[in-house]
Specification:
The protein is α+β, with helices and mostly antiparallel strands. Helices cover 32% and strands 31% of the residues. The C terminus is likely disordered.
């Protein structure tokens, strides 16, 4: 056997033994990139992420770690380690407290990193998966940030003005054509009368 094929076989064997140890889990939330959490200065809100072990083949142990927003977010559960049995879901409860000196429009991104935890007894070689889940906390009410689309209103006025101008041109055109027809008709009548 050549050296390259021996290395390939060992690498393939190693990968095959590691792949079953990769754990599958997911994290969901009622807040996300396009659906931020709106809060007021000095307000505190309790909410949660949901850990899901629906696609794996065994129970998973997941560690939660705050990576963004440490000043405003606090984990509420007794431990930052969560055991999620196969086919089940588990809540990760946390509290967000906004300082009272914030201003409307301030934005606080928050993220919690969830990482699978394995012990040496479970798997001597294991690949742990990590998922970062987060969203923005925006100070104010959603109505504070709704913009009235000015372009649509401007286009409406442009359409009205163009319609009025077109109507005005049509009316002028009709009047001029009537005047020409009347002059031609009157001119022909007059000429006939003169001929007699």
């Amino acid at each position: 056997m050549t050296k390259i094929s021996l290395v390939s076989i060992i690498t393939l064997s190693l990968l095959c033994s590691i792949v079953p140890n990769v754990l599958a889990f997911a994290v969901s939330s009622q807040y996300y990139d396009t659906n931020p959490l709106y809060m007021q200065p000095g307000e505190t809100v309790e909410t949660f992420f949901t850990l899901q072990n629906l696609a794996g083949d065994r129970n998973v142990t997941i560690m939660a770690r705050i990576t963004y927003g440490e000043k405003i977010i606090t984990l509420l559960d007794e431990s930052d380690i969560y055991n999620v049995p196969l086919g089940e879901k588990k809540k990760v409860n946390f509290k967000i407290t906004i300082p009272s000196d914030t201003k409307i429009g301030d934005k606080f991104p928050i993220t919690i990193m969830f990482t699978t935890v394995t012990t040496q007894q479970e798997n001597p070689i294991a690949i742990g998966g990590s998922i970062g889940k987060g969203f923005d906390v925006i100070i104010g009410k959603p109505s504070d940030f709704i913009e009235v689309p000015q372009e649509k209103n401007n286009y409406l006025w442009i359409y009205i003005i163009v319609a009025v101008i077109i109507l005005f041109i049509i009316i002028l055109f009709i009047k001029k054509n009537k005047q020409k027809q009347t002059k031609i008709f009157v001119g022909k009548k007059t000429s006939r009368i003169k001929k007699f």
